[in-house]
Every structure is written in C-alpha cells, then in structure tokens.
Amino acid sequence: MSVLKVFAPAAAQTYAGILEHDDGGTAAAAAASGDTHVLPFVGLAARIGRQVRPDVVSRARAIYRNRFCPQCDRVAVVPVELKNPLLNRNHRPLPGSASLVGFRCRLCNHEWPR
C-alpha cells in the first residue's frame, strides 16, 4: 500500500531540502521534473452531497394536518409508511425516514392518502 502525500508545487521548491531527508529525495526529484499526479477530489464531494435526505419539515406538517380522522373526528391517527427507511451504521431503521404515503385511523380503520 502506498502513502498519499499532499503536494503543493510552490512549496516543493521551498522545502526541497526537507523532502530529500523524508523520503530519500524522490519527492524532491518529482517536484523538480514536474512528474506529479494531481488527484481530483471534486467527484468525491459531489457523491457526498448527493445523498438523499428526508424533508423533515414537510413530513411534520403533513402529520400535523392529518392528526384528526376525517371520518370519525378522533385523534387516533397513525402514519402509513413504506418499508424503505434509511438505515444507520448498525443497519437499523432511522425513525421518520421512511416514505410517508398516507394515514390510518386506529379506531375506525379509515385510510386516506397524504
């Protein structure tokens, strides 16, 4: 396994003496010859930012708007969710991360969409 070193071309000329002592001169020689490889980290940043995050505020508003059953006007409503929650590092579902598709009254069993 190789070691990834952070490289700055402007600093390589300044610290050429230090680089020769650290790795036997290979980094200093690479800096002098221009034989360096730049690794782009833009792709990694784009993949990290693309993760799906549930919209917590809209979910809370939908649950609040549908807290009463439209048929019996009681407060025994539970959300109906799909079986697709986000999982934590222990592969356990995160509460409130599944897709909300509707609501169901526990007393009269009436169901309605979101």
DSSP summary, beta strand count: 3
Q: Note the main sheet.
A: 3 strands, antiparallel
Q: Roughly what fraction of the amino acids lie in strands?
A: 5-15%
**What is the distance, rounded to the nearest whole angstrom, between the alpha carbons of the first and last residues?**
53 Å
Number of domains: 2
Series of H and E elements: HHHHHEEE
- Structural class label: alpha+beta
How would you portray this structure in words?
The chain is of the alpha+beta class. It has two domains: 9-49, no CATH class; 56-113, no CATH class. 35% of the residues lie in helices and 12% in strands. It is built from five helices and three strands. The chain has helices at 9-14, 16-23, 26-33, 42-49, 56-65; strands spanning 77-81, 100-105, 111-113. The protein has a three-stranded antiparallel beta sheet, with no helix packed on it. Helix 2 (16-23) crosses helix 3 (26-33). The protein is rod-shaped. The mean pLDDT is 76.
